[in-house]
Amino acid sequence: MKVLIMAGGYATRLWPITKDNPKALLPVGNRTILDYILEKAGELGFETYISTNRFFEAHFRPYAERYGVGLIVEDTLHEEEKLGTIGAMKRAVDELGLDDYLVIAGDNLFSFSLREFLGAYDGTTLIAVYDVGDLELAKRYGVVVLEGDRVVSFQEKPAEPGSTLVSTGVYVFPRKVMGLIDEYLSNGNRDSPGYFIQWLLSRGVDIRAYRFDDYWYDIGSADSYLEALKTLLRESHIEEIQISPYSKIIPPVVIKRGAKVLGRSIIGPYAYIGEDCLIENSDVSDSIIFRGTTIRNATIWRSIIDERCEIRNLELRKSLVGGHAKIQRGE
């Protein structure tokens, strides 16, 4: 078996913060999404590969070297050129050969052990499913209907979901199913694995489900990203920083090297402050602030602010701010 982590998308739903940074490398606490996935995959002892694109190749190479995994790079530089998940899986098969593949979406944070997941694998296609508990929310995902652990229906982003169980982007495809990818692609559906699952069911392929509880996050929106931070940030990590005696830190937080917390500031709970940020006379909570950003006389709540921004004299709530932005209210 081989492990294939899919990180070839351009994450347009999270632009502008992912315009120049791959979603799999967004920080969640003191680690990136990819760190969480690679640590889980590393317990298995299988050959592991990251599938990405030429635009983001240089971002992933240090991770490949650090974790001792391979890189498969599709020759694309833009969203409109991308192969899609199934197209990228075909490229992996062409490069690595037919085998059983554990395929993991690179924007996925999940609570279960991959070793336990593979314990449910018996040579039949296996997908991990999670109960989101809300039919309206289920409309955003691939919806699964089960009889026991057997998948009897799969609907990709349905208008009327048949259940609240959704596919989470973790699959095992046996060798014989990977061998069907060429035939599937001849039908023109490349991007979503959900359509591949539907197609397999229509051909009578047996598919089983592994249900799990606790947590799952598809980091496809600012809300899901911030909720993942709240779940996974369980203890503070504070590097070499400058902090005023009049400022207060409410754990858990991550504050990276070179940050300055000045004046009467309150950081936390659930705040990520990147390298070389300056926070002065400001409150930051439930938020992610990327490197080199300056925040003065502001309140930031449930917001994501990209690198090298300047935010002054205002209150930001539920906001997504792109890199190098300057936003201020008059003095």
From TrEMBL:
InterPro entries linked to this entry: GMPPB_C (IPR056729), Mannose-1P_guanyltransferase (IPR050486), NTP_transferase_dom (IPR005835), Nucleotide-diphossugar_trans (IPR029044)
Domain Nucleotidyl transferase: start-end pairs: 2-233
A GO molecular-function annotation: transferase activity
Key word Transmembrane present: no
PANTHER family cross-referenced by the UniProt entry: SUGAR-1-PHOSPHATE GUANYL TRANSFERASE
Family designation: Belongs to the transferase hexapeptide repeat family.
Protein name, entry field: Glucose-1-phosphate thymidylyltransferase
Species name: Thermococcus celer Vu 13 = JCM 8558
